[in-house]
Amino acid sequence: MPLNALALRDATFAELLAATERTAVHLEMRDSYAVGDEADDYAAFLRTGIPNLDPGRSFWPQWMPLVREAVGRGVVMRRARIVSEPVTDYIRYEHAITPLNLEAGEQVRWLPRREASTIALPGNDFWLLDDTVVQFHHFTGTGDWAKDGRERTTDPAAAALCRTAFEKVWERAVPHAKYTP
Question: Which residues form the DUF6879 domain (predicted)?
């Protein structure tokens, strides 16, 4: 169901995903994030080197049902991550917890940054839903959500840029099971 401009602005991501019918793709391009809902698990990983793969912790109890519901009704969810090598501690952590993304139903691939040099990329991470709705993510320099942490648009040029960028990344990227950070 198409969303009008007001609904697009005010909808939660869960509502946007619920309105998605075919595809939801996410491109992540930072080497470090510092979002609050994973701070404790990340700190524990830095101390121990062991990821917390309990789906009842952190942000997973909210995320996993959203993904399962979307995938269950036929939405293909793909996530690609462009990473510098050698990887940062954060990327090691993110790789270690990715089995939860996979368990929920996402497909995940990794692209070494050196392989992305000839891809025209948007300036920010994004979600692209059904090739028409783009949600850009804005972060501070330290990796936490910026004050206005998201920007949404249905501008066809923005959607086309994101679609093309994601597909080029996806083609070159390594499936999670084959990528070693």
Answer: 12-180
Per-residue pLDDT of the chain in tens (181 residues, 90 and over written 9): 455 655 888 899 999 999 999 999 999 999 999 878 888 999 999 999 999 999 998 889 999 999 999 999 999 999 999 999 999 999 999 999 999 999 999 999 999 999 999 999 999 999 999 999 999 999 999 888 898 889 999 999 999 999 999 999 999 999 999 999 9
CA–CA gap between residue 57 and residue 72 (Å, rounded):
22
Nearest to 135 by CA among 15, 32, 34, 36: 15
ω before 86 within 30° of 0 (cis)? yes
Neighbours of 3 (CB within 10 A): 18
- Angle between the N-to-C axes of helices 89-104 and 60-72, in degrees from 0 to 180, rounded to the nearest 10: 50
Map residue 7 onto helix, strand or coil.
helix
Spell out a b/e string for 102-124, using b for 16 or more CB atoms within 10 Å of the CB, else e.
eebbbbbbbbbeeebeebebbeb
CA dihedral 95, 96, 97, 103 (to 10 degrees): 90
pTM (predicted TM-score): 0.94
State the Cα–Cα distance between residues 178 and 133, nearest whole angstrom.
31
